[in-house]
Amino acid sequence: MADKKNIQYDDKEPVISIRDLKKSFGTLNVLNGIDVDIFKGENLAVLGRSGSGKSVLIKIISGLLKPDSGMVKVLGQEVDKISTAALQQLRLKIGFSFQSSALYDSMSVSENLAFPLVRNRRNLSTKEVNAAIESVLNDVGLSQTINQMPSELSGGQKKRIGIARTLILQPEIMLYDEPTAGLDPITCIEINNLIVKVQQQYNTSSIIITHDLTCAKTTANRVAMILDGKFLTTGSFEEVFNTEDVAVRTFYDYNFINSK
C-alpha cells in the first residue's frame, strides 16, 4: 500500500498560487475569495458539499473557465492572462482526471491512450508510442486491458485508464475530480492508493476534489474545506477535523468516519 506520510514536498515552491479568486454565475456567487498555494510534490484535497464550487475551482485552474476577479497562477503563469497558444502548452503539463473518466467508447484502451500522444507529441515513432502505452498501463496495474473496449471495463478500471491517459503526457500537476465517486469501497481503496503512487512515481503536485473523507485522509498532505465560496480551514486532516466548529463536524459526522 502506498503511504503518503513518506512523501516530502517543498513548502517554499508553489506550483499553483491563488489569491482572492471570485466566480459567479448570474446572481449565484460560487467562489467568494479563495486564497491558497499548492506546493511542488504536494497533494491537496479540497472538501465541500455538492455545489460548493470545488469543480469550478479546478476548471478555472485549467483554463476551462475564466475567473471574475483575482489571481490564478499555474507554474508561474497567470492562466487568464496568457495567450491561447500559451494556455494550450500549459495544459500539456496539467493532467485532468474527469469524474466520468471521459474515455472514447469507440476506441480500444490502447487507442484511448495513444490519442493524446499522437496529437501532442507528433515526433514520436509508433514504437515509442506503444512503449509509453505499455508503461502507463503497467503503472496503473491494467496491462491486460490493452486491447479491450471501454464497455468491457469496470467502473474502477475506467477510472484507472482515465488516469493513465493523463499520465502518458507526464504532467507536472494532476487535477482529480471526485476520483472515488460511484465506486465500491474496495475499488475506492485501490484508486486512493493509485493517487498516492502517482504522486510518488511521477512527482506530481495534485488537487483532489472530493467529498469522500477516506479519500482525503488517504491521499492528501493537506486538506482544505470550502464553505460559502471560501476556504473555511486548511491544514492536515487531523488539524482540520480536530475542531468543535459545527460546519466542519457536521461534514465529518456525515461521512461516518470514526478516528477513535
Q: How is the largest sheet built, in terms of strand order?
A: 6-7-8-3-9-10
Q: Helix/strand/pairing class, anyone? A: alpha/beta
* Total number of helices: 9
Query: β content, as a range?
Result: 25-35%
Can you characterise this structure?
There is one protein chain. This protein is α/β, with parallel strands linked by helices and about 260 residues long. It has nine helices and ten strands. It has helices at about 55-60, 85-90, 110-120, 125-140, 155-165, 185-200, 215-220, 235-240, 245-255; strands at about 10-25, 30-40, 45, 70-75, 75-80, 95, 175, 205-210, 220-225, 230-235. A six-stranded mixed β-sheet has the order 6-7-8-3-9-10, with helices on both faces. Strand 7, helix 6 and strand 8 (about 205-210) form a beta-alpha-beta unit. Helix 3 (about 110-120) packs parallel to helix 5 (about 155-165) and helix 5 runs parallel beside helix 6.
In short:
By secondary structure, the protein is an alpha/beta fold.
Write the layout of secondary structure elements.
Elements: E1 10-25, E2 28-40, E3 43-47, H1 54-61, E4 69-74, E5 77-78, H2 84-91, E6 94-97, H3 109-120, H4 126-139, H5 155-167, E7 173-177, H6 185-202, E8 205-210, H7 213-219, E9 222-227, E10 230-235, H8 237-241, H9 246-254
Parallel strand pairs: 3-8, 3-9, 6-7, 7-8
Antiparallel strand pairs: 1-2, 1-4, 4-5, 9-10
Helix pairs in contact: 3-5, 5-6
Record keyword descriptors for this entry.
alpha/beta; 6-stranded mixed beta sheet; 9 helices; 260 residues; 4-stranded antiparallel beta sheet; Rossmann fold; 2 domains
